[in-house]
Amino acid sequence: MAMAAASSRLFWASRAAAYLRISTFPRAFATVLKDLKYADTHEWVKVEGDSATVGITDHAQDHLGDVVFVELPEVGISVSQGKNFGAVESVKATSDINSPVSGEVVEVNEKLSEEPGLVNASPYEKGWIIKVKLSNSGDLNSLMDDDKYSKFCEEEDNH
Amino acid sequence: MASVGLARVSGVARPLMRLVTMSRMPILQQLHLEEQLLRRTSDNWCIINDGTAPATIVMGVSGRVSELVNIQLVLRDKVPIVRRFSGGGTVIVDQGTVFVTFICNKNVVAGLQPFPRDIMSWSGQLYGKVFDRFGEFHLRENDYAFSHRKFGGNAQSITKNRWVHHTSFLWDYDVKNMDYLKIPKRAPEYRLARNHTDFLCRMKEYIPSRSVFTDGVIAALGEHFSVQPMDLQAILSGDEEFVPSTKLLSQQYLEEIVSSKESLEIIES
């Protein structure tokens, strides 16, 4: 449901931008989903058992602009909470992606090699980046829930 | 446009900005230095390199050589190609290029978010103070332009707590060197399919001297930072174990691209 709303908003924003020749930045609100946890470096994590799926948030992709390349890690490497495991490149910039959790990378979204724009079009679904076998479920305690993260983003944007 | 962090700070201690000025430093060495300062220090830096030698093509981290460079010309003339650690497009740099790089902590400018457009906007405002008296200065789609003609290109790298913003300014350029570069697919809209000579301009046509420009940058910095000149040797003498990710592309690598592309063309024909 939330994803449908997000998709339709993105579609409208893109069409409006194309028609009016205006930038879609900044938008009033970025989508934030309830069942995820969030880092202050704008990554999300969805935990199911000891498996965690990680990506960057809608707020992040909105601020980054068009993603043209995603540097993916290798399956099997260890990631640590707060440390970078890869990067996204938008026009003119590379930005580190920091892992919200610690563990071992068990899957990477190879589709992003051919379609990096999935990170923009579908940051919480098709644009996921890595899946991690968790080594420390206590990591989640230092992450934000959707409400805290929404407030965090508002504060950042309002400075 | 809101003046994020650019309001003059009176009566408050300004953050320290360490200034390194160089001349004719090879671009590969400059990029290694910048990456080292980004990843291995917690200081704020401004690096100014007035010219570089030899003439070198510099590409962003994900640029595809065959799409951006006339490889056969490059091989014939033995022009080096460097792949940068940051994003951004492709440029050929030489003694007519002036480089200015900011390497900063995330919180050094109040309210500046660590995202590409925010940093670009901040630096555009800073450079506006340098250039506005010389011409109609614009930040256009990540480039610096006088009216609609580009004279400076940007590239950035953003880590968890720090960022680097580097600019290659075209004080002067050799038209012949532009033949090594192809017009990129992702050209900015304001380029309007213009070739290099119509799209670019030379700063020397607008500003009296290179030193007027570089002194202007240092003066603009001084309005917001406590600027501390640093000796290059003092910086370099340490951290021998740092391995930079900026790389010189080998001639063999380039030759392999040419032959694989030629075999692809044979298959297609």
From TrEMBL, chain A:
Database matches in SUPFAM superfamilies: Single hybrid motif (SSF51230)
Sequence positions bearing N6-lipoyllysine: 92
Protein keywords: Lipoyl, Mitochondrion, Transit peptide
Domain Lipoyl-binding: 51-133
GO BP terms: glycine decarboxylation via glycine cleavage system
UniProt remark on cofactor binding: Binds 1 lipoyl cofactor covalently.
CDD domains the UniProt entry points to: GCS_H
Predominant place of localization: mitochondrion
Annotated localization: Mitochondrion
A family per Pfam: GCV_H
InterPro entries assigned: 2-oxoA_DH_lipoyl-BS, Biotin_lipoyl, GCV_H, GCV_H/Fam206, GCV_H_sub, Single_hybrid_motif
Gene Ontology CC annotations of this record: glycine cleavage complex; mitochondrion
Gene3D superfamilies, sorted: 2.40.50.100
Cofactor: (R)-lipoate
Keyword ATP-binding: no
NCBIfam families, sorted: gcvH, PRK01202.1
Function: The H protein shuttles the methylamine group of glycine from the P protein to the T protein.
Assembly: The glycine cleavage system is composed of four proteins: P, T, L and H.
Family: Belongs to the GcvH family.
Protein name listed in UniProt: Glycine cleavage system H protein
Organism name: Zea mays (Maize)
From TrEMBL, chain B:
Organismal lineage: Eukaryota, Viridiplantae, Streptophyta, Embryophyta, Tracheophyta
Ranges for domain BPL/LPL catalytic: 42-229
Keywords: Ligase
Transmembrane segment boundaries: none
InterPro entries: aa-tRNA-synth_II/BPL/LPL, BPL_LPL_catalytic, Lipoate-ligase_2_inactive
Any Pfam family: LplA-B_cat
Protein name: Putative lipoate-protein ligase A
The keyword Cell cycle is assigned to this record: no
SUPFAM superfamilies in the record: Class II aaRS and biotin synthetases
GO MF entries: ligase activity
Organism, scientific name: Zea mays (Maize)
Keyword Signal listed: no
